Amino acid sequence: MADITLKQQSLSVSAPSRHEQFQRHVSLLSSHSETVRKNSLGYLTSAFSTWPVDECKKPTITYFFPKLLPLIVDASNDVRRQLLRLFQVLPAEEIKGKIEMIETMQPWIRSGLCHLAASINDSALDVLLWVLNTSSDDFVSCSGGWVKVLDAFIAMLGWSLQDESSGWTNIKTMRLEPKLFTKALNVLKRFLRAGLEHRPKVPKPSEWGFPLWHTQYFMLPSGSNPYRHLRLFDPEPLNEKNHPYGSREERQRIYHKLFRAAVDKGLEATKREGGEPGRVAASTLEDLANWMKDFQEPITPRQPRPTRWR
After folding, report:
1. Beta bridge partners of 162
2. What is the pTM of this model?
């Protein structure tokens, strides 16, 4: 009878580190399985909110943020709800001032607002409301964050931009359920407040004493890419839709030019219908009157008549 001799063996299992697990679940966000995407979002939410401060450095938001954006229009309701929970645990101080990162959200939010599925419209409104509560100034000031989002709202609410001279409309109307329609009106009101409300800036007392007065105005800018509005390295040509409107006066001007008539007409029609949407529309009309009362329409210079030579 032959003897079987086995060499001495040792089994050891080393668990992956937190960073390795985090990277693994970030890579699973593009999985075809709905359950895998939902579970990965749940892990990221739990890991990011309970990350030990003294263990290792927490992953930066810019590392995994682009992977989250396609899930705004995900077909699964559970995935979108879990995505919103993850957004809500992200620290606001790491999002404010990151205009380039916020600008990448804008096309996905517009896609969700104009989607044919009402559930995706609802989720897109939740994400937009979260952005406005987190960094509203950056969102309405980024490229396309004002005009293109207002275009999406007009399309979703069914308020047609009609050309009276030609008698045709350039967008299709969409009918929403009363509950979703009321929610869209509330988010629209919050969006218009972020772009049109006058918020006087309270100057902070300078920490520097004599002779260094007003030193804060000569310091380096705190936000990322402060000269982005110049678009020095952007190959896309400027137009009214993708132009970044950084000041309230610019947003008032383009709103009055492109959207004021359609929004006022839509709100007036909703107000006459009554109910909860009518009350929200009436409140929005009153606020719009206050936000636009100091607006002065620019005077178009008169063109001189050509001189006729005899």
Report:
1. 169
2. 0.80
Nearest to 117 by CA among 159, 180, 67: 180
What are the C-alpha distances in Å from 211 to residues 27, 214, 255? Answer: 54, 10, 44
Q: Which residues contact 291 (CB under 8 A, 6 or more apart)?
A: 192, 193, 196, 197, 198, 252
Omega prior to 59 cis, within 30 of 0: no
Q: In 3D, which of 33, 180, 40 has the Cα closest to residue 120?
A: 180
Helix (H, G, I), strand (E, B) or coil at 48: helix
Which tens digit of pLDDT belongs to each residue from 36-75? 999 999 999 998 888 776 656 777 888 889 999 999 999 9
**168 membership: H or E segment, kind and range:** strand 168-169
Q: pLDDT tens digits, residue range 250-303?
A: 899 999 999 999 999 999 999 998 899 999 999 999 999 999 988 877 665 555
Q: What is the DSSP string of 64-104?
A: HHHHHGGGGG-S-HHHHHHHHHHHHHS-GGGTTT-HHHHHH
> H or E element: which one contains 148?
helix 147-157
Residue 261 host element (H or E): helix 260-273
- First-to-last alpha carbon distance for the chain, in angstroms, is 129
Neighbouring C-beta atoms of residue 109, cutoff 10 Å: 23
Q: How far is CA 38 from the centre of its chain?
A: 22
Could you write out the DSSP letters of every residue in 196-254?
A: H------PPPPS--TT-TTGGGGSPPSSSSTTGGG-TT--SPP-TTT----SHHHHHHH
pLDDT of 173 > 50? The answer is no
What is the residue whose two structure tokens read 């000569």?
Answer: 218
Distance CA 285, CA 194 (A): 15
Distance CA 148, CA 114 (A): 11
> Is the torsion defined by CA of 7, 12, 13, 16 positive or negative?
negative
